């Protein structure tokens, strides 16, 4: 319904409703004259049948369509907010898995490569403990900004919780994905946050998996695999990318 309104335009819908109202009013009035008086509709009847809906229908339909469009816009906004992380504006965990699942299934069907990236900010707890949670939030929003600057519009980015993030890079080879992670490391190296006149630098550890998925693969199973590589990155010095299987 809303799609039809947007496609045809509110004025066109109002004209259509008014035309239908007038036509229906004429038909009903004609039937009343025929049943009750066994005669054709009079000129007064025709005038009343036309003027009544012509006066009422445009204003009522314009108002109701406006209300309907506002409700629809509010519903879309609420649906969007329900899928986004309130701090970073990235997809939340549920929305990320939903969108990534679609792309993984597409990659399985078309037999194209995808890359899964798991990211975790290094020593994030120390930022919170030393400078407070507001500094931690600033680091997360700054990281999101840097991350988006390195990603393509087609990439699916999600905050899975805390300082944990994930990205699905569709139609991306292993070399391309690795180059992406190196650009991100480099960009973070030139970035910092300022808290009480103190510049704070931070890094990220990354696990990376690139493959042409099979029917056995799901976004959950792929993330489980790449989490192992992320764990190795965290435990082998941090601020690095570990590729699954290497």
From TrEMBL:
Keywords: Membrane, Transmembrane, Transmembrane helix. It is an enzyme of class 2 (transferase). Its EC number is 2.7.7.65. GO terms for molecular function: diguanylate cyclase activity. Coiled coil: none annotated. The chain crosses the membrane at residues 12-36, 42-69. Its cofactor is Mg(2+). InterPro entries: Diguanylate_Cyclase (IPR050469), GGDEF_dom (IPR000160), Nucleotide_cyclase (IPR029787), Rev_trsase/Diguanyl_cyclase (IPR043128). It catalyses: 2 GTP = 3',3'-c-di-GMP + 2 diphosphate. It comes from the Bacteria. Residues 112-246 form the GGDEF domain. Gene3D superfamilies: 3.30.70.270. PANTHER family: DIGUANYLATE CYCLASE DGCM-RELATED, REGULATORY COMPONENTS OF SENSORY TRANSDUCTION SYSTEM. This is diguanylate cyclase. It comes from Shewanella pneumatophori.
């Amino acid at each position: 319904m809303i799609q039809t309104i947007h496609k045809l335009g509110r004025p066109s819908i109002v004209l259509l409703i008014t035309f239908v109202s007038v036509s229906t009013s004429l038909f009903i009035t004609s039937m009343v004259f025929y049943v009750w008086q066994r005669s054709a509709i009079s000129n007064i009847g025709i005038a009343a049948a036309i003027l009544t809906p012509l006066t009422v229908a445009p204003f009522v339909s314009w108002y109701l369509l406006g209300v309907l469009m506002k409700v629809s816009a509010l519903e879309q906004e609420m649906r969007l907010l329900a899928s986004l992380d309130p701090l970073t504006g990235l997809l939340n965990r549920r929305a990320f898995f939903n969108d990534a699942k679609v792309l993984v299934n597409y990659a399985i069907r078309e037999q194209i490569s995808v890359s899964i990236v798991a990211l975790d900010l290094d020593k994030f707890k120390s930022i919170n403990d030393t400078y407070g949670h507001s500094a931690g939030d600033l680091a997360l929003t700054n990281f999101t900004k840097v991350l988006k600057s390195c990603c393509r519009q087609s990439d699916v980015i999600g905050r899975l919780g805390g300082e944990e993030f994930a990205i699905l890079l569709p139609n991306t080879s292993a070399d391309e994905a690795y180059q992406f992670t190196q650009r991100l490391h480099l960009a973070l190296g030139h970035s910092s946050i300022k808290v009480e006149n103190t510049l704070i630098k931070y890094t990220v550890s990354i696990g990376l998996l690139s493959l042409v998925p099979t029917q056995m693969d799901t976004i959950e199973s792929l993330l489980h695999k790449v989490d192992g590589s992320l764990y190795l990155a965290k435990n082998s010095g941090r601020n690095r990318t570990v590729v699954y299987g290497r």
